[in-house]
Amino acid sequence: MTHDARNHLESVVLPWWDREAADDARGGVFTCFDNHGRLLSRDKLTWSQGRWAWLCAELSLDAGRGLLSGDAGLWAERSVATAGFLRDHALRPDGSTRFRVAGDGTAPTEPKSAEPRNEESVFADLFAALGLTGAARLAGTDGDHASLRADAGAILASAHARISAGTARTEPYPVPAGFADLASPMLLLHVASEAQRAGVAGAREVAMAAHELLVGASGMLSQGRWWEFRPAGLADEDTLVARHVTPGHLLELAWMLVHAERVDRSLAAPGWLPDLALMALERGWDAEYGGMLRYADRAGGRPEGRSLPGDRYEKLVRETWSSKLWWVHVEALYAARLFADTTGDPRFTRWAERLADYTFATFPDPEGREWIQIRDRSGDPLDAVVALPVKDPFHISRALLLLNRLDAGASTPS
To answer: Which among 64, 162, 84, 65 has a CA at the least distance from the CA of 117?
Structure first.
C-alpha cells in the first residue's frame, strides 16, 4: 500500500478526535456530529462509547510498543475512564445496556423512539463489552480488572443467550421476521475473541458457538455460501432481503475470522475464506463510479428481488444501496491487505492498491476535519443519516492501526 497508514492516523484522524470530541472530564467521546463535523448533540450512544474504550486501549498499547507516537498513558486513561462511564451509566442488571445517555450519564436529551424497544440493541451491548475488555487488558492502570472482566462476561453471556434464542434486538438494522442475520454472530465472535484475549471467563465457549453459527455446517457462510439475511424457508429466497449482500460486512468478518484463529487455533478460518473475500470485493466494486457499494445484489449491482411490504430494513437497502461509506472502504482495505500478506495472492495486492487509491482520494476532509464519512455514489458528500446519527471514530482508526501493524511487521498484542 503506497499510503502511510501511521502518518494518516497520527496527523489527520486522531488529532481531530483529540481536539473536538474526547470528553476527558467525564469519560467517553462525543460522536453526534453531522457529515461536516458540526456537533449536534452531546448525548452519548453506548455503541460508540464501547468502541472508543477499546480503541483507546489499543492505541495505548501500540504507543507503548513504539508503533505509534503519542501519550500511551493518556490513551490508557481514556480507555479506563470510558469503561467507567459505561459501567456507571449504561449497564443494566440483566446484562443489557442503555442505548443512549446524556453527556453526563443522565437521561438523554434526544426524544426516545415512538417504539420504546427500538432504544435497545444487542450491538450496543456487545460494543460495551468490547470496551470493557479493552480497558481490562491494560496493565498498570487503577482500574479493577477482575470486575471489568466480570461485567464484560455478563454482557457477553446475555447477548449470546438472546442471539441464540432469536430474541435479540438489532437496531438500527432490524431483522425481518423469519430471517437470521449475519451481523449478530459476526460481532459476537469478534467480541468473544477479544474477551478471550482479556481473560474473560466463558468467552471461549461463546466464541466457539458464534464460530459455528457463521462457518459451521449450517452456518451463514456454510461451504462458502454467503447470506447477509438467511430466510427460514425456500419460499423467501427470492426476496430482496434474502438476495442482497453487504460486501463491507463480509470483508470485515473475513479478517475477524483470521484474527480469531490467531487467538484460538480451534476457531479455524475455513480454507474457502479467501475466495469468498475475493467474491465480496468483486460484487461490491462499483464498475461505473469506483468504490465499494454499501449493498449489492447476490449477483452484483443494484439489489433486486421480491419486496416484503413495509419492511424497514428493505427500505434502508433500497434507498442507500449505492452510498459510498467510510467503514465499508476501510474494512475492505484492511481485509485485502491482510489476505495479500497471508496468502501471497497478487489479486489481493491489486485490490488493496485500488481500494487505498479510492479511499484516500475520496474520504479525507480537505479542511482538516478528519473524514467526510458519508458520500453518494459518485463520491460527493451526502448529508444523510445512513444508520446512526453519528460521526464515529472506530472503523477508520481501527483499520489504520491494524494496517500500521502490518506495515511494521507487528502482531496484535496479547
So the answer is: 162
> Is 385 within the bounds of a domain?
no
The model's pLDDT over 109-134, given as tens digits with 9 standing for 90+, comes to: 765 544 444 479 999 999 999 999 99
Is residue 211 domain-resident? no
Asked if residue 88 belongs to a domain, the reply is: yes
The three-class DSSP label of residue 39 is strand
Joined grid coordinates for residue 186:
459476526
Q: What pLDDT is recorded for position 384?
A: 83
- The string of DSSP letters for 164-192 reads HHT---BTTSPPPTTEEESHHHHHHHHHH
Under DSSP, is residue 225 helix (H, G, I), strand (E, B) or coil?
Answer: coil
Set of cell numbers at residue 314: 428493505
pLDDT for the residue 51: 98
The pLDDT score that the predictor gives to residue 112 is 55
pLDDT value, residue 282: 98
Contact 70, 7 (CB under 8 A): no
Question: Would residue 47 count as lying in a domain?
Answer: yes
Residue 235's contacts (CB-CB under 8 Å, 6 or more residues apart) are: none
Q: CA separation (Å) from 112 to 89, 116, 213, 289?
A: 17, 7, 33, 38
Q: What CATH number is given to the structural domain containing 118?
A: 1.50.10.10
Q: Which residues contact 227 (CB under 8 A, 6 or more apart)?
A: 180, 182, 220, 221, 242
Q: What is the DSSP letter of 70?
A: S
Residues whose CB falls within 8 Å of the CB of residue 38, separated by 6 or more in sequence, listed in order: none
Domain residue limits at 94:
1-172
The low-confidence residues of the chain, meaning pLDDT below 70, are: 1-2, 110-118, 139-143, 387, 414
Q: Looking at residue 115, what is its pLDDT?
A: 42
Q: Is the Cβ–Cβ distance between 97 and 90 less than 8 Å? A: yes
Kind and range of the H or E element at 79?
Answer: helix 72-89
Q: Three cell numbers at 298? A: 447476490
The whole-number pLDDT of residue 113 equals 47
Cis peptide before 346 (omega within 30 of 0): no
Place of cell 457463521: 214
Count the domains in the chain: 1
